[in-house]
Structure formats: C-alpha cells, structure tokens
TrEMBL record:
Domain DUF7021 as annotated: residue spans: 22-126
Domain DUF2262: 136-268
Protein name: DUF2262 domain-containing protein
Length: 270
C-alpha cells in the first residue's frame, strides 16, 4: 500500500489539483466504491506523484449516498507502486479536501480500507453486472466500464471489425446508433471514399517512410492497410482505424469525419 502524504494545510493540499477548481480549507471523510474506469498517474512536483482514481458511488460520512462520479487525486511517493492499491469495486474511506462543486477531491489520508457497507456493497455488485444494448444491425453491444463506451463486432465491407459507441457523457447512445445506421446504410460508398481519401492524404508520406527506396502504388498501399475498428462519436462524427501493414512501422492509420462534412482528417497515431 502506497500511503498518501499528510500535507499540513488545505492550501498545500489543494495545489495537488492543477485544474481551475475551488477548494475549501476543511477536510472531510468520504467513503465509496472504486470505479471500474481506468486509473492514472502523473508527476506532481519533485516530492510526489499524483494517483488518479474515482468513486462511482460515494458519500460524505453521515450524509446521503451520491451516484455522481467523484474524481480522487492522491499524492504518493514518486517511486510508489500504487495502481494495485484500490481495485475496482472495492470500498474505502478517505479523508479528503472536497471541491466546492463536489466532483473532485484531493486525498489527505487513507482512513480505512475495504470497509463494510450494505448500500455501497450492493452498488459494487450492481457495477459488476454486464450492461448490454441489443440492436438489430450491430448485434449485442456491451458496456466497457473502463472506457465508458459500448463495443461489439460488426460486418463492414465483408470483413468483421470492432465497433465502439462513445458517448460524450452518460450511457445514452441513441444518437450514436442513428449515426451508425446512416453510415452503414451506404457502407460501400463510404469505403470507396475512405480508400481514396487515405491514398490522397497518406500515400506520399508512406513512400517517404520506406527504407528500401521502393515506391508503392495506391493498390499496394490499400492492400496493406487493413480496417480494424470503427468508432462512432457524438455529433455525427466517426473514426476508422486501420492496421498499417508496417507502412508506418506499426502506427495506426486513422481516417475520420462526420456525416455532415464527409471525411475531414487523417492521422497515424501510436
């Protein structure tokens, strides 16, 4: 267990959070269920690292339960191994500096690990259950709790690929499904546009990357570029992610756009 630093004043503790967020000076105790979403960490200053996790359900001790997420920022020693300290679904009590909006908190002390609480325990069990949206075209879509989006598999241009529906907030994907329906209704035409756009945007760069000096033509470029997944985003936006076939030494080829504007961007992330 990586112990949080007991900083001496509210001012020092609030400096752990570099966001534009207002904090009072009083510490409170909170207890909650560790979220299924991913945890993170980054260097705070020369004295500590910030461990980031969240509660999916929580309460200030003695007050009613809340179901809005609470982001927890926990200062730990720079060389600490902290990712296994609080597994998803476990219940803990922390002393924290709670933001005025009560959406963020900086941890001052771990008061008690693995507490017993019937109400929080029931929510923890609930959060372990799969959440599935059943659709006719896209099959069963399962909530990925770590990423807060729904995902499944679908046929595109006679190939099975992964598909994800990524809402901006909450779990309502109704509008995203509408975007996908329009996109898949004209899949053959979109595929032609994607291929032409990828060649126009990335073929010249691809040849610059070739170490043997041999230039590839558009057919070879498209043969090596293989669609792996489709991401459906808010406001009619989408992303097509391709394996690069080592054209860019393992970088993905991402083609993105929207129903309104068509294809607008290409990138080689990773």
């Amino acid at each position: 267990m990586s112990k949080a630093f007991k900083l001496l004043s509210g001012n020092k503790l609030s400096s752990v959070d570099v966001s534009d967020c207002e904090y009072p000076s009083e510490l409170v105790q909170v207890e909650g269920v560790v979220s299924q979403s991913g945890q993170g960490g980054w260097r705070g200053n020369e004295n500590y690292t910030v461990h980031s996790l969240s509660f999916d359900a929580w309460r200030v001790v003695g007050e009613p339960l809340r179901r809005n997420p609470l982001l927890l920022l926990r200062p730990v020693p720079i060389d600490a191994e902290y990712f296994g300290d609080f597994p998803a679904g476990t219940l803990h009590k922390f002393e924290v500096l709670l933001s005025v909006e009560q959406t963020r908190a900086v941890v001052s002390e771990v008061v008690q690990e693995n507490i017993e609480d019937n109400e929080l325990g029931e929510i923890a069990r609930e959060l372990q259950q799969p959440v599935i949206v059943r659709t006719e075209r896209f099959g069963d879509l399962t909530l990925n709790r770590q990423l807060d989006w729904f995902e499944g598999h679908v046929d595109w241009d006679d190939d099975e690929v992964e598909i994800s529906f990524q809402p901006e907030e909450g779990l309502d994907i109704t509008n995203l499904l509408e975007t996908a329906e329009v996109l898949f209704r004209d899949a053959a035409e979109w595929q032609k546009k994607i291929e032409a756009f990828a060649v126009a945007e990335k073929l010249e760069l691809a040849n610059d990357w070739q170490e043997d000096g041999n230039e590839m033509d558009a057919c070879e470029f498209l043969r090596r570029m293989t669609l792996e997944s489709i991401s459906i985003l808010p406001e009619g936006k989408f992303e097509f992610w391709h394996d690069d076939g080592d054209i860019f030494f393992g970088h993905s080829i991402q083609i993105s756009g929207s129903l309104r504007e068509g294809l607008t961007d290409s990138d080689i992330p990773g």
